[in-house]
C-alpha cells in the first residue's frame, strides 16, 4: 500500500533521471516518486518545447510539474539538482522535507572557493563542447574507485551542449539566491548526503551549514562514495530515502 507523500527527484547538470531509475522501481519505498528529466537533458535533450536552460527556467519547469501533484512533497536534488531545489523550495506550499547531495548550499555571491574543492577537471561541466577525453577524466575523478563511467558519459553526450554554457552564465551573472540562508531558514526537516570521496564538495563547509540549522538538518556521510550516491551506493541510498521520507511525512 502506497503511503501519502511524493518524493520528487532532480538530477544534475549534463545528467538525466537515469540516476534515479533503480529507486523508481524499488518495492521497498512505499511513497509515490517522480524523477523528470530537466530541459536539455535525457529524453528532453532535443525537445524544443522547453528551450530555457537557465536555473530560473528549470525552476519554472519543475514548479509547473509540482503544481499538478496533490500531495505533500519531499525534494531530493543531486548536484545542480540540489541547487535548483534550493532555488525553488520556498515556493512549494506542501514541502515537507529537503534532501541535497553533491550540493553545498552556496552564499550570494557564490562562494566557490569555500563551498567547493579545487578540481580543475570540473570545468568540463561548464564547457559546451569539451573533448571526450576530458569528459571521461572528469567522471573518473568524481566517481569513487573504479566505477564504470560509460552511462555518465552517454548522458553527458546526449545533453544539449548549451545546458553547460547556460549554467556558466548563471554563475558568472550571480543569478543564484543566497542558498545557504534559504537552507538554514527553511522550516522543514533537511538532510545532506555526502560521499566520503566526493572530490568536488568541501565536507567542512557542509558541517558548518548543518551546525547553523540548530538541529533541523542531518548530515549523512556515505563511505567509499563519490558525487552520485544514488548509483554508487544504491542500497544505502534507498535505505536513506526510506528514513528521510518517514521523518518528513510524519
Description:
It is a single chain. Strand 3, helix 3 and strand 4 form a beta-alpha-beta unit. It is built from eleven helices and six strands. The protein has a six-stranded parallel sheet with strand order 2-1-3-4-5-6, with helices on both faces. The chain is α/β, with parallel strands linked by helices.
Helix content: 25-40%
pLDDT averaged over residues: 96
Strand % is: 5-15%
Question: Distance between termini?
Answer: 17 Å
What is the number of strand segments?
6
Descriptors:
250 residues, alpha/beta, six-stranded parallel beta sheet, 6 strands, globular
Please describe the topology of this protein.
Elements: E1 3-10, H1 21-24, E2 31-34, H2 55-66, E3 73-78, H3 80-88, E4 95-101, H4 112-115, H5 132-142, H6 150-158, H7 162-173, H8 179-185, E5 190-195, H9 203-212, E6 217-222, H10 229-232, H11 234-248
Helix pairs in contact: 2-3, 5-6
Amino acid at each position: 500500500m502506497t503511503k501519502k507523500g511524493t518524493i520528487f527527484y532532480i538530477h544534475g547538470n549534463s545528467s538525466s533521471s537515469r540516476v534515479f531509475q533503480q529507486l523508481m522501481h524499488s518495492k521497498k519505498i512505499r511513497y509515490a516518486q517522480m524523477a523528470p528529466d530537466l530541459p536539455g537533458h535525457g529524453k528532453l535533450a532535443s525537445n524544443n518545447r522547453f528551450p530555457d536552460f537557465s536555473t530560473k527556467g528549470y525552476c519554472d519547469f519543475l514548479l509547473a510539474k509540482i503544481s499538478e501533484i496533490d500531495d505533500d512533497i519531499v525534494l531530493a536534488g543531486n548536484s545542480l539538482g540540489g541547487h535548483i531545489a534550493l532555488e525553488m523550495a520556498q515556493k512549494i506550499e506542501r514541502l515537507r522535507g529537503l534532501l541535497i547531495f553533491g550540493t553545498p548550499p552556496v552564499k550570494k555571491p557564490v562562494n566557490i572557493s569555500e563551498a567547493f574543492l579545487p578540481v580543475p577537471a570540473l570545468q568540463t561541466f561548464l564547457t559546451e563542447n569539451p573533448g571526450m577525453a576530458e569528459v571521461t577524466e572528469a567522471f573518473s575523478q568524481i566517481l569513487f574507485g573504479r566505477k564504470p563511467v560509460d552511462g555518465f558519459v552517454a548522458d553527458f553526450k546526449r545533453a544539449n551542449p548549451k545546458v553547460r554554457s547556460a549554467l556558466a552564465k548563471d554563475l558568472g551573472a550571480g543569478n543564484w539566491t543566497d542558498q545557504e540562508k534559504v537552507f538554514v531558514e527553511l522550516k522543514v526537516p533537511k538532510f545532506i548526503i555526502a560521499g566520503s570521496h566526493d572530490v568536488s564538495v568541501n565536507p567542512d563547509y557542509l558541517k558548518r551549514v548543518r551546525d547553523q540549522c540548530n538541529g533541523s538538518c542531518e548530515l549523512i556521510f556515505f563511505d567509499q562514495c563519490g558525487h552520485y550516491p544514488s548509483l554508487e551506493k544504491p542500497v544505502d541510498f534507498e535505505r536513506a530515502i526510506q528514513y528521510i521520507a518517514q521523518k518528513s511525512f510524519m
